[in-house]
Design goal:
Blueprint: E1 16-17, H1 23-30, H2 38-46, E2 50-57, E3 65-70, H3 72-77, E4 92-93, H4 106-114, E5 119-123, H5 129-142, E6 147-151, H6 158-164, H7 172-179, E7 183-187, H8 197-204, E8 210-215, E9 225-228, H9 234-237, H10 246-255, H11 260-265, H12 279-287, H13 293-304, E10 309-310, H14 320-325, E11 329-332, E12 335-338, H15 340-346, H16 352-362, H17 368-381, H18 385-414, H19 418-430, H20 434-441
Helix pairs in contact: 12-15, 13-15, 16-17, 17-18, 18-19, 19-20
Length: 449
């Protein structure tokens, strides 16, 4: 009730509502599994404290979804009160994930805040790195510090990270002069491409007040104080599950390795993994088996796409709700993607025919993200990527030069040709990367360069 109490009564008549008042959004905000909310929501509905209706959830597909509001009686009974205690006036730059209620991380959070920066937090996919980062962001904002947040994708380079941090120029010297005591935060470091890894490292090592999160093992660690994020303690893991007996919840938590994402995906009808069985194998066997054929098509589509995309561009947009109810999605502002653990499990099983249909669909979508996805799919489908790249290089360079540089490298890795090496050299020169250009020049017979 306190969670819903944060939202004004005017939202009850709105057509477009935030995801945070539908079941998956409430569950994530409270840090529990979807199934853990079924019984308490039913009781609140029966007691007249909460109402239910269908509305369009922003950035989550076109299908209307069940959303929840406090009734007048519910607001009288809610303990939520607007916090009138003055907090710090820190300014947030960038778009971090939503704040959530952390389970079992308060001690670790306190320890991380005491560690001298720079800090590198690392751990398994789905272990809660982004949620911990958001808690760190909130702490510094409340303390009055400015925080600058950025998130790495396959196509990010140093310039795009600097822009996400809210700086208007790319000179490291100028940024170091302006940054002062601002806290820099970078999530998903492991997504960095080999093409841009060195420049990202060179950027990050210049700052003292920087906190980075990465899947294990991080691409670089020198100069950073390392913090490994472990699975939850058993006493915290059981809090994510429904109101079964404590013995049952402890049994489930142990079998799922106290892994936060696995616990959120768990449903009482699922078979638990055997002792010591790999979580990824359990996801493939149990979670995917509960999906419809249409939802599996969306699962494959998102598994084939290497960055968050707008839901309206998806071929199977109507199935977003189903994947969200199974805790398989994550949001980056207005864009969505698969949980990375899920993406890693599913991608190897996508058929060539499915990839070809996805390519056919993304050719019809507009925007710079769609062009990157289209070229990515052409490369993994081997659908004449070189011809496409050479024909559209100028356009792609203007749309997203960092992404084009990565994708040309990908194409070269699969089928190196003199024309691609020449283009890669030109891209590096235009991006002001002489060392990279010289590496490519060794494979180019082009006196004009």
């Amino acid at each position: 009730m306190d969670w819903l109490g944060k939202y004004p009564p005017a939202l009850e008549k709105a057509w477009d509502v935030p995801r945070s008042i539908c079941l998956p959004g409430i569950a994530e905000g409270l840090g529990v599994s979807r199934s853990a909310l079924h019984a308490p929501l039913s009781k609140l509905l029966n007691d007249g404290l909460v109402s239910e209706r269908r509305a369009h959830v922003l950035n989550a597909g076109t299908r209307r979804r069940k959303v929840y509001h406090l009734t007048i009686e519910g607001r009288k009974n809610s303990e939520f009160r607007e916090n009138l205690t003055p907090k710090g006036s820190g300014i947030l730059y960038g778009n971090p994930p939503e704040s959530v209620e952390l389970k079992g991380r308060s001690k670790l959070l306190s320890e991380v805040l005491k560690i001298e920066q720079p800090v590198m937090i690392y751990g398994l996919p789905g272990i809660g790195k982004s949620s911990l980062l958001r808690a760190i962001v909130d702490h510094h904002l409340d303390a009055g510090s400015n925080v600058r947040f950025a998130r790495m994708t396959k196509f990010s380079d140093a310039a795009s990270i600097i822009s996400a941090w809210g700086f208007e120029y790319t000179s490291i010297q100028a940024i170091m002069h302006e940054v002062g005591d601002d806290i820099l935060v970078l999530d998903e470091l492991h997504e960095v491409s080999s093409r841009h890894a060195k420049s990202i490292h060179n950027l990050c090592k210049n700052f003292t007040h920087i906190i980075i999160a990465s899947r294990a093992p991080p691409p670089f660690t020198d100069g950073f104080n390392l913090v490994e994020l472990p699975p939850l303690e058993l006493s915290a893991a059981v809090q994510l599950l429904s109101d079964d007996s404590l013995d049952k919840r402890e049994h489930v938590s142990r079998r799922l390795g106290c892994h936060p994402l696995a616990l959120q995906m768990y449903d009482q009808e699922m078979t638990l993994p055997e002792q010591g069985e790999d979580i990824q194998a359990w996801v493939e066997k149990e979670v995917f088996d509960n999906l419809s054929l249409e939802s599996l098509k969306l699962l494959d589509e998102l598994a084939a796409i290497p960055l968050p995309v707008p839901s309206q561009n998806l071929r199977q947009e109507s199935q977003v709700d189903d994947l969200d109810m199974h805790a398989l999605l994550r949001w980056d502002g207005k864009n969505i993607e698969l949980q990375h653990l899920v993406r890693n499990v599913r991608f190897p099983h996508i058929t060539d025919d499915e990839l070809a249909m996805l390519l056919q669909h993304w050719q019809t979508q507009g925007g710079s993200i769609a062009r990157l996805v289209e070229l990515h799919l052409r490369i993994i489908c081997d659908a004449q990527p070189e011809t496409y790249i050479l024909k559209h290089a100028d356009e792609l360079m203007l749309l997203h030069d960092a992404g084009l540089a990565v994708l040309v490298d990908d194409a070269i890795a699969i089928r190196p040709t003199p024309a691609l090496y020449k283009l890669a050299t030109i891209i590096a020169i235009e991006r002001g990367e002489p060392e990279i250009a010289n590496e490519f020049l060794n494979n180019v017979d082009a006196p004009d360069l």
